[in-house]
């Protein structure tokens, strides 16, 4: 018997700007104990489907069609029926667990009330059931957790609480809206493992929404791809990933940097254009404007969802042509960076030696009583040659951004040296010369807050030109247009302000601003993590192209390992303010690696079957840098800890060769043996 | 929680000590010659010099400060230059009067404004919200003396059910005996604040009802009553609490216009008179009372804040 049967669902949001058709004529079914994935870029209507199933939509929303669940039609059910279904037969897991839990109530109150509301059970009985459920979501020390408030738990534990809350009454359907987005990759991996176990134990149906194809591949049975409010393809998961029939699905899959891809083998594929505004959808096929296969006929009539194989449907006139195309070879491109020089004949552009950044935290009455030092960056050294790319990876809270901040002069250096070219860059930004400032520019994660909302694009780009006297006054405008063209925008953008730009366009402007001063080094702090995959690919390509043309070096900070591997020449892996492993990118991501790198690599959700790395999972979260573990800082979470030496002594660097250094007590030969062994086990 | 309160109290004491030094320095630079004020213009310079010596006013500033603050803490607040009476008992009496009026006003303001704000917030842009929003805007815009006059005309002269004159024989208020005299001034003081606090509460309530954790509560299938009372209310009250407690200080010490209008012997008019007449001991006493009020209400705000918000309690 079908658990959920959505028939011809239409949802539109009515506002003063018009009617936004968020979901159009969507039909799907979910069977018992099936996990159905819904994937697509932001603004495609995925979350609206989830909220429509919960019937939690803004007041001015039009909803037609049927959402059949058991005996009820949720689309028309009265509030009393909805109250009985929600939290009981249908439950939801949300994207951001921290804000989804009430900050002023204990975890116990928030969990027990679900049982009380639906079954009337209270007191010891309800408490016992809550503890049992927390144990089932592998929560350490449930009795302790019950007395905590949400802000006292880590992100991974918060999400376990939210999952426990959803599963308490053993619902028939759980709707999960981006449940692992925003979690660190190591924590995400743990949550996904848990969900995979739970969906088998509980035999529940899941609607799993995500923009991340790797996550979808890891957990779903069947997948629906949404574009501009419509379901454009639906298939069993392996079939969708192996034989996509819709050009949009093909594009999405090709956008993602794969485990094997490197910038030296070619540029990334990206889908041109962007999702059309839902208030003014084009005629005919909504994807035609971005589609490489589009013909004039595509914009005449709207394509229907058509069955292309057993259980596989696609909404495309030309799917037969699409599948005949061989998987396109990567776009060849000249190597973006010069080969690494021999250590003697070339001088490093940036040299960071024994960098320490300590913050002082005041405590007690008016901060008079005590203060403690937080060692955010503790003795980090690396160097970067001209025109090459250094990637920095690590979980959040490891000090990645602080390194960039110290190099840029935004964070005060406690001790150590930063040399840039021939000059000393250890001093803060206020005491650097204008010429020095020009040499180094930054691109930030959040282009919303790093572009002045009141300045037009032209004004934003004119600032660095004036500051650094790049061009004479009369030639500024032409130069700015040149910069815009370099980032694939044109002069129509000159008068726009940030709010009139999409996320990708804003990041392009931020990149143009960074290049405007003609620097030698650009520090990129998570520049693409808030962008959709197709836009990510375009921005990465752009960065590489500009790097090649304008001969700059990049320091690239990201939590996405595939992106770092794709883009970087050298990679430094940071844990709790220290480097655990540093070396050439191709060497970092294969054995022997530092156990921390091994865990990070194994946590990446991969798209293709067989590419799934072996599973090594980290417990808990990054300890506080105010009180770091003794010896090797990673020993508290290390899956390969060998003994008390890890707790007592700081590991020395072991040279693997080719400037690849691993800071670990385990001898290299042993590491290599262990790691190739586990890898072999998992490929079998 | 006890540790939290003790820590807060320590901070408050230090704040007050610093402020008292500032007050003393300020009153020292004021162009007031105490001996002249006490003895009058006809006094001889010798007599004035002798009195200055006797009062210890020619000693160095730090020494005088220590002497003043230690007397002040022991309850010796000096004698008013103008009225020739002990400052402390007078201030005590007037303070009790003002506190009584403020409590009465607060008893009206807090429930009414929070309730109106919550109702408006829960019905965003429907008619109850419109009515309350416009009403509160009007109440904020009318000056308090206009409100007071209208009330006097209506209830005292027209309906003749409440007195328009709130003066007290013997200067001491007794709630049982004088409650009728307090009603109109209390309502006048309430009108402005109700509008203001209701608006703050409304915005806070709208924000909370729109938050992801309220969505979680609704989608757990909880009854609407539980969602509002258990999940929304406590979070929504955090913002108005800060406003209410800071306004309490104003209610006690700042109702000068209302006290004058109703002829009510509160502390606000006492302070205003002292300032106008260069009555130094009274000015110092009033300034100390004022900062104590502000600092205490701030402390109260912190404690309520911490009670509502575990993120502050457990850092």
DSSP, total strands of chain B: 0
Class inferred from helices and paired strands of chain B = mainly alpha
Quote the distance from N terminus to C terminus of chain B.
12 Å
Helix residue percentage of chain A: 25-40%
CATH superfamily of the largest domain in chain A: P-loop containing nucleotide triphosphate hydrolases
In DSSP terms, counting alpha (H) and pi (I) runs of 4 or more, how many helices of chain B? 15
- Quote the average pLDDT of chain A: 87
Order of helices and strands of chain B: HHHHHHHHHHHHHHH
The CATH C-level class name of the largest domain in chain A: Alpha Beta
Strand content of chain A: 15-25%
Largest β-sheet summary of chain A: 8 strands, mixed
Q: What is the gyration radius of chain B calculated from CA atoms?
A: 24 Å
Beta strand % of chain B: under 5%
How many runs of DSSP E, i.e. beta strands of chain A?
24
Low-confidence stretches of chain B: none
Low-confidence stretches of chain A: none
Annotation field: number of helices of chain A? 24
| Count of discrete domains of chain B | 2
The number of distinct structural domains of chain A comes to 4
Radius of gyration of chain A: 26 Å
């Amino acid at each position: 018997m079908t658990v959920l049967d959505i028939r011809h669902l239409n949802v539109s949001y009515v506002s003063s700007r018009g009617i936004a058709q968020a979901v159009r004529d969507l039909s799907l079914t979910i069977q018992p104990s099936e996990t159905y994935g819904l994937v697509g870029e932001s603004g495609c209507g995925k979350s609206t489907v989830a909220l429509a199933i919960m019937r939690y939509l803004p007041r001015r929303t039009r909803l037609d069609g049927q959402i059949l669940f058991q005996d009820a039609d949720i689309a028309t059910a009265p509030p009393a029926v909805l109250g009985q279904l929600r939290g009981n037969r249908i439950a939801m897991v949300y994207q951001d667990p921290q804000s989804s839990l009430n900050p002023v109530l204990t975890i116990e109150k928030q969990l027990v009330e679900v049982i009380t509301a639906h079954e009337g059970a209270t007191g010891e009985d309800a408490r016992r059931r809550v503890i049992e459920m927390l144990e089932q979501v592998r929560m350490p020390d449930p009795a302790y957790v019950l007395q905590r408030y949400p802000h006292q738990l880590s992100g991974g534990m918060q999400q376990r609480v939210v999952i426990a809350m959803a599963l308490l009454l053993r619902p028939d359907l759980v709707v999960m809206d981006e449940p692992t987005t925003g979690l660190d990759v190591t924590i995400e991996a743990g949550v996904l493992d848990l969900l995979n176990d739970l969906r088998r134990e509980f035999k529940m149906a899941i609607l799993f929404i995500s923009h991340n194809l790797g996550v979808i591949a890891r957990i779903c049975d069947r997948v629906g791809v949404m574009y501009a409010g419509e379901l454009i393809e639906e298939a069993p998961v392996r079939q969708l990933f192996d034989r996509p029939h819709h050009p949009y699905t093909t594009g999405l899959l090709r956008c993602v940097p794969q485990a094997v891809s490197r910038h030296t083998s070619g540029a990334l594929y990206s889908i041109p254009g962007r999702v059309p505004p839902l208030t003014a959808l084009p005629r005919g096929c909504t994807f035609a404007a971005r589609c490489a296969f589009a013909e004039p006929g595509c914009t005449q009539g709207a394509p229907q969802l058509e069955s292309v194989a057993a259980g596989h449907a696609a909404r495309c006139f030309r799917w037969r042509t699409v599948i005949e195309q061989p998987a396109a070879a990567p776009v060849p491109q000249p190597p973006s960076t010069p080969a690494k020089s021999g250590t003697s004949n070339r001088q490093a552009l940036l040299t960071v030696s024994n960098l320490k950044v300590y913050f002082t935290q005041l405590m007690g009455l008016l901060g008079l009583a005590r203060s403690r030092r937080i060692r955010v960056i503790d003795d980090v050294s690396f160097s970067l040659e001209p025109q090459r790319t250094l990637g920095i990876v690590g979980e959040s809270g490891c000090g990645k951004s602080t390194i960039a901040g110290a190099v840029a002069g935004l964070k005060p250096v406690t001790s150590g040296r930063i040399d840039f070219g021939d000059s000393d860059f250890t001093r803060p930004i206020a005491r650097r010369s204008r010429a020095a400032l020009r040499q180094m520019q930054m691109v930030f994660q959040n282009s919303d807050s790093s572009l002045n909302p009141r300045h037009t694009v032209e004004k934003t780009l004119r600032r660095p030109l004036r500051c650094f006297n790049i061009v004479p006054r009369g030639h500024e405008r032409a130069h700015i247009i040149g910069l815009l063209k370099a980032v694939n925008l044109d002069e129509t953008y000159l008068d726009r302000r940030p709010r009139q730009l999409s996320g990708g366009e804003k990041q392009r402007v931020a990149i143009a601003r960074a290049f405007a001063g003609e620097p030698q080094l650009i520090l990129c702090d998570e520049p693409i993590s808030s962008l959709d995959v197709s836009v990510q690919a375009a921005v990465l390509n752009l960065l590489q192209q500009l790097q090649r043309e304008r001969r700059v070096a990049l320091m690239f900070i990201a939590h996405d390992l595939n992106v770092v591997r794709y883009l970087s020449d050298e990679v430094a892996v940071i844990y709790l303010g220290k480097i655990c492993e540093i070396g050439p990118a191709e060497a970092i991501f294969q054995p022997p690696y530092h156990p921390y790198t091994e865990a990070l690599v194994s946590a990446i959700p991969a798209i293709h079957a067989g590419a799934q790395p072996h599973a090594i999972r980290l417990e808990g979260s990054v300890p506080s840098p105010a009180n770091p573990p003794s010896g090797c800082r990673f020993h508290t979470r290390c899956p390969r800890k060998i003994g008390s030496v890890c707790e007592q002594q700081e590991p020395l660097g072991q040279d693997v060769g080719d400037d690849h250094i691993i800071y670990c007590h385990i001898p290299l030969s042993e590491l290599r043996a262990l790691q190739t062994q586990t890898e072999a086990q998992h490929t079998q | 929680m006890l540790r939290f309160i003790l820590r807060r109290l320590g901070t408050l004491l230090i704040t007050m000590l610093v402020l008292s030094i500032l007050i003393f320095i300020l009153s020292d630079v004021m162009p007031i010659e105490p001996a002249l004020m006490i003895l009058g213009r006809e006094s001889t310079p010798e007599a004035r010099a002798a009195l200055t010596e006797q009062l210890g006013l020619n000693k160095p500033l730090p020494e005088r400060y220590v002497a003043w603050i230690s007397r002040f803490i022991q309850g010796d607040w000096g004698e008013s230059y103008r009225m020739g009476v002990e400052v402390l008992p007078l201030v005590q009496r007037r303070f009790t009067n003002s506190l009584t009026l403020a409590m009465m006003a607060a008893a009206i303001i807090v429930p009414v404004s929070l309730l109106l704000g919550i109702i408006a917030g829960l019905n965003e842009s429907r008619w109850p919200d419109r009515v309350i929003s416009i009403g509160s805007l009007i109440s904020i815009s009318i000056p308090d003396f206009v409100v007071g006059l209208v009330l006097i005309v209506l209830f005292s002269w027209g309906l003749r059910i409440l007195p328009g004159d709130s003066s007290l024989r013997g200067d001491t208020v007794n709630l049982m005996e004088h409650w009728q005299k307090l009603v109109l001034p209390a309502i006048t003081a309430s009108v402005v604040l109700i509008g203001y606090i209701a608006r703050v509460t409304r915005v806070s309530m709208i924000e909370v009802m729109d938050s992801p954790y309220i969505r979680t509560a609704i989608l757990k299938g909880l009854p609407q009553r539980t969602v509002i009372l258990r999940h929304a209310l406590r979070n929504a009250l955090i913002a108005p609490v800060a406003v209410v407690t800071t306004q309490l200080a104003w209610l006690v010490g700042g109702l000068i216009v209302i006290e004058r209008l109703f002829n009510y012997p509160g502390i606000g008019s006492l302070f205003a008179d002292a300032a106008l007449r260069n009555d130094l001991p009274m000015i110092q006493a009033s300034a100390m009372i004022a900062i104590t009020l502000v600092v205490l209400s701030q402390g109260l705000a912190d404690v309520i804040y911490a009670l509502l918000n575990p993120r502050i309690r457990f850092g």
